[in-house]
Amino acid sequence: MKKIDLFLLTGIISVISINQLNAQDMNKATQAENRVSAKGFAVHSRDDHFHSHEFTRHAVGDNDVQIEILYSGICHSDIHYVLDEWGGTVYPVVPGHEIAGRVVKTGKNVSKFKVGDYAGVGCMVNACGKCSYCVAGKEQFCENRTVFTYNSTDHYHGNETTMGGYSNNMVVSENFTVRIPENADLTKVAPLLCAGITTWSPVRFSKVKAGDRAGVAGYGGLGHMAVQYLVALGADVTVFDITEDKRQDALRMGAKRYVNVNNPQELEGLNNTLDFIITTIPFDYDPIIYVRMLKMNGEMAVVGLPANSNINISTLPLGAANRKVYGSLIGGIKETQEMLDYSVANNIYPEVEVIKAEASEIDRAYKSVAAGEVKFRYVIDMKTLK
Ligand code: NDP
Ligand code: ZN
């Protein structure tokens, strides 16, 4: 009798597992069938130009939204990646992590968006949501590995490599999508998703307030956002860059001083004068000149990520006045939403040059950023993609 029961039980278990297997297989087949076709621009090696590139994205899951990308910003990080300056670039790479678009499809559990809403995606598309960092709203440091928007292994979707926003669409969890207010200036909003949050986050972390003396080193895509946030908060702002071309722009944006660091006499008298400094410089530089400018207990946020990231900071000037130097990486989703709402409400946007979605235009934009010619951010109009 027992033997028969066991036999029956084994039969039932194997039927259940065959059914489960079938369900899993069917699920996989449906997922494969429902993959979303995408097209955009990629480079295939570090010496390559941009080319049109067709690929697919994972299916729209129950918690996902599909976004039609309308505008995509060009960040200097994209250039570091394309040139493999940080190591580890997986080609072909479709860059782009400053994404503004419109929701065209929603998974069945999505509650934050409906079809037609404006939506933004920044530098990350997934994280565990459970570790201490995620719970603290710092998903960019997820202990179980953040999935970044491109060139990142998506361990929630079969370990495929993520592809970024120089493309016509995006499929992403609603938890990693931010709401773009309907009254936002859509041509300019995309760079807020990286340049905006990367500068907003340390400005808030260091609790900069009205009357504080602040410095912004590197006055490009990130730097000109930092200037605008600091001015809006009432800080007295000094800008540091290496050209004369942007002196008037800095003053126009509300900075009190502009220092061309190539003229050493302009640096005189600045030591021990600043409460807060943000450095956004993408190339090798000497951080110590900025450290020395900090007052006692002053804070310096390092956000620029030069190819050679081993910058040396002498401990002597740090210890001389309890100065604090810290690194900062983008910002969490909640604070990205706060930054976006604040920026739109206060009319704080990047100054942008909109280009067509053509490979040659992106090539041209990269050269211009590398040569320091852009004021201040290129944005690709993805609607012009052919
Ligand atoms: P941009 O190229 O737009 O701006 C860089 C600016 O720095 C330019 O104005 C450039 O001058 C200036 N500069 C170059 N060398 C010096 C120097 N020695 N001293 C002072 N200024 C200098 O870059 P982005 O703003 O897009 O990005 C800046 C950096 O931040 C990059 O390394 C990027 O990877 C990093 N980044 C970091 C993030 C993070 O989360 N930590 C997020 C996003 C970006 P000019 O153009 O006048 O020649
Ligand atoms: Zn960026």
Give a short summary of the structure:
With 386 residues, the protein is an alpha/beta fold. It is 28% helix and 25% strand.
Topology:
Blueprint (H helix, E strand, L loop, with lengths): L1 H32 L2 E7 L8 E7 L6 E11 L1 H7 L16 E8 L11 E4 L2 E3 L5 H4 L11 E2 L4 E2 L5 E2 L7 E5 L4 E2 L6 H4 L5 H11 L7 E5 L3 H12 L3 E6 L5 H6 L4 E4 L13 E6 L8 H4 L2 E9 L12 H5 L4 E4 L5 H13 L6 E5 L2 H12 L6 E5 L5
Parallel strand pairs: 12-13, 12-15, 13-14, 15-16, 16-17, 18-19
Antiparallel strand pairs: 1-2, 3-4, 3-10, 3-19, 4-5, 5-11, 6-7, 8-9
Q: What is the terminal-to-terminal distance?
A: 72 Å
**Can you write the helix and strand succession as a string?**
HEEEHEEEHEEEEEHHEHEHEEHEHEHEHE
What are the low-pLDDT stretches, counting only 5+ consecutive residues below 50?
Answer: 1-16
Q: β content, as a range?
A: 25-35%
The small-molecule ligands in this entry are:
NADPH dihydro-nicotinamide-adenine-dinucleotide phosphate, zinc ion
CATH class of the largest domain: Alpha Beta
Architecture (CATH level 2) name of the largest domain: Alpha-Beta Complex
Domain module count: 2
Shape: globular
- Helix content range of the residues, please? 25-40%
Radius of gyration: 24 Å
The average pLDDT is: 93
How would a textbook summarize the main sheet? Answer: 7 strands, mixed
What's the name of the CATH homologous superfamily of the largest domain?
A: Medium-chain alcohol dehydrogenases, catalytic domain
Q: Structural class given helices, strands, pairing?
A: alpha/beta
Question: Count of DSSP E strands?
Answer: 19
Number of DSSP helices? Answer: 11
CATH topology of the largest domain: Quinone Oxidoreductase, Chain A, domain 1
